[in-house]
Amino acid sequence: MISTKNLIGHINDVPREWVFEYYLNLREKLCGQDVKILSVFNSKDSVPSMFIYFDTSSNEYKFKDFSSGYQGDHIQLVLHLFNLSVRWKATYKIINDYSEYLKTHKRFDKVEIKFHSKYQVSDYQIRSWNNLDAKYWTNFGISSNTLKKYNVHPLEFFTMSKEEDGKAYTITSNKHYTYGYFREDGELFKIYMPKNKDKKFIKVQNYIQGMDQLTYDSDYLIILSSLKDLMSFEELGISNIEKIAPDSENSVIQESIINDLKEKYKKIVVMFDNDEPGIKSMQVYNNKYDLNFINLNLSKDLSDSVLEFGIDKVKNELFPLLKHTVK
Questions:
Q1: Strand pairing of 179-182 and 188-192?
Q2: What is the secondary structure of 233-280 as a DSSP string?
Q3: Could you tell me which of 1, 139, 255, 302 has the fewest CB atoms within 10 Å of its CB?
Q4: Cα Rg for the chain, rounded, in angstroms?
């Protein structure tokens, strides 16, 4: 008699939590919490940059790896882990591996998913600029006028709050080098803490940085990797080009927005970080939207290039690349 006990016929028969726990060797059962680990795609990762999180919109676990730029569901995890070319190959591997797993395990003990509240910014206070702030931003060539134009303000403190199991929890931070990024209407959309090695950004809401400042009077638009890079670019004094930046290199701007911007500019180019994740992200824009990209081979990103080489050197290196790309 042929036993059908361990025959798995469909990917839906494999618990998604098992895929993450098994292939990532997680030490804890996934039950709705978020997990932060060292990147499995980057052996040089010294600070955990890979997140396994429960996506409440789809009611399933997903991952996002800031070190490599990879993100997605359990199938995409296996696809990237084993350098597979298409999803069906990853699906096939998962089914086979889970079938083998069941030969030595009676079953996979799946824990009931419980919603875990997440901390959200509940309060903050803007303070006056000081000498520490001035020294930090001028290192990247960014002036007070540019900070004012893009609504960047130093914060005296901010508070994170959540409620769970009928209890209220709050965390307040009042460290130096804490900045709020604001929309033109005064809404806070991000907190930036450049000296915090564990978490430099706290996202408050979705926002394409620089959109409020667009006048649509220029011929060209450049998409940069961050607001800091955008502001450093502003200081280069390159005319006839406007600039925006997504939430992060890994957040691809929606197709409808790109198509609308294509109607307003002669050409759109992309310039992200000069590393593997940045180059991969630029290639995504090239493949998806047919946008040319610039690889400035100086420091990791534009603002760090200004820090290391100065504005004049960066401008002299960048201008020919930019001129060639917008032809």
A1: antiparallel
A2: HHHTT--SEEEEB-SSTTSPPPHHHHHHHHHH-SEEEEE--SSHHHHH
A3: 1
A4: 23
Six token digits for residue 181: 């990024």
Write phi, then psi, for 240 (nearest 5 degrees): 65, 25
Q: Phi and psi for 256 in degrees, rounded to 5? A: -65, -35
Q: Express each pLDDT in 92-140 by its tens digit.
A: 999 999 999 998 887 787 777 666 667 889 999 999 999 999 999 999 9
What would the pLDDT profile of 11-41 be if each residue is shown by its tens digit?
Answer: 988 999 999 999 999 988 998 888 899 999 9
Burial 148-161 (b: 16+ CB within 10 A, else e): eebbbbbbeebbbe
**Domains by residue range for the chain, with CATH:** 11-104 (3.90.580.10), 119-206 (no CATH), 208-327 (3.40.1360.10)
Whether the predicted pLDDT of 325 surpasses 90? no
Q: If you search the block for the tokens 């409020």, which residue do you land on?
A: 212
Q: Residue 291 corresponds to which tokens in the numbers above?
A: 């946008």
Q: Is 30 exposed, middle or buried (0-12, 13-18, 19+ CB in 10 A)?
A: buried
